[in-house]
Amino acid sequence: MNNDMLSQEEIDALLKGPDKEEEISEEIGDMEKDALGEIGNISMGTAATTLSTLLNQKVTITTPKVTITTIDKLADAYQIPFVAIDVTYKEGLEGANILILKVDDVKIITDIMMGKDEIDLERELTELDLSAVSEVMNRMMGSASTSLSEMFFRKIDIEPPKSYEITFNEGKERIDILKGDQPLVKISFRMVVGDVIDSEIMQLVPIDFAKEIVNILLGNEDETSITQEAYEIDRDFEINEEPPKTISLKGKKENTTGKIIDNDTKEEAVVVKKPVFETFNEKSNTSYNESIDLVAEIPVEITAELGRTTKKIDEILEYGPGTIIELDKLVGEPLNIYANGKSIARGEVVVIDDNFGIRITEIVNSYKNS
């Protein structure tokens, strides 16, 4: 008789119902998690370079860890205030995500940007801190958006970020993507800034938005939108008289011989090259050949940029003979080449006899197609 009776643990499990974590995990698979991790790794790597330039400190952001959670679980696990930066995409993607930083990390970032000799962690967080971290995140996520644009073959841009000092319970009322009980993708990074910050930052993405990002990356969008993208990136890949043999659009679908091929070996014939492109190119070439003699003798100033940096006025006033200014370019990194201020190419420094020169290694696509 006793063997047929349920234990208290079994009764609690029946009353509780299926485990919420298991239900959430079924909504996004390991492949999607890996894709999100790779996206975060690439975009935050670019953002780390930007932060390093702003703070003049070495910045390292480690490979992310991707998990699925809910706002209630986060509210239980993290009860102290933090700084939330709300980043909304305005072009290329439709959605938003939240970046979570510790309050002390924000104070450190602000003090470094203000040029303070000592970092004060005992002070109260101010509006100046929130404004400073908003600007930092605007620069960082702007750089990350550029990386995403190259990855997704579309222009991606963000709204100016908004920063809040809140708890997760307060976030349920103030931040749209934290309202309700929808699952969230939590992407955790370890961020090391010089010897002043060794901390964890967190990126929270609504699961529906995360799925949309993964679908774009893996090529699971509507066929019509993929075809339209193939037209839009025609100039970038120079699809004119003959399409390239292999152009990866979104991982699962490839443009090989003017067709979109899916993994199920089903082929759908899609004309990648619009007739209007061919006509446009013919006119452009004819006009160019006829008019080049008229402008051939106009002088053009060619400039090679070794690098850039940003300094405060008081630092510049201290400059003198022998001062070394560190630039944002790494050793061996291509230098930018400008024609009358317009970027046209990249190259590497060479020495010709006693003179410096620059060998062109890459022509900028926008100049090449203009």
TrEMBL record:
The keyword Membrane applies. GO terms for cellular component: bacterial-type flagellum basal body; plasma membrane. Belongs to the FliN/MopA/SpaO family. Residues 295-364 form the Flagellar motor switch protein FliN-like C-terminal domain. It holds the Pfam family CheC. Residues 31-67, 130-163 form the CheC-like protein domain. It is a peripheral membrane protein. InterPro entries: CheC, CheC-like_sf, FliN, FliN-like_C, FliN/MopA/SpaO, FliN_T3SS_HrcQb, SpoA-like_sf. It comes from Anaerosalibacter bizertensis. GO terms for molecular function: cytoskeletal motor activity; hydrolase activity. The lineage of its organism: Bacteria, Bacillati, Bacillota, Tissierellia, Tissierellales. GO terms for biological process: bacterial-type flagellum-dependent cell motility; chemotaxis. SUPFAM superfamilies: CheC-like (SSF103039), Surface presentation of antigens (SPOA) (SSF101801). This is Flagellar motor switch phosphatase FliY.
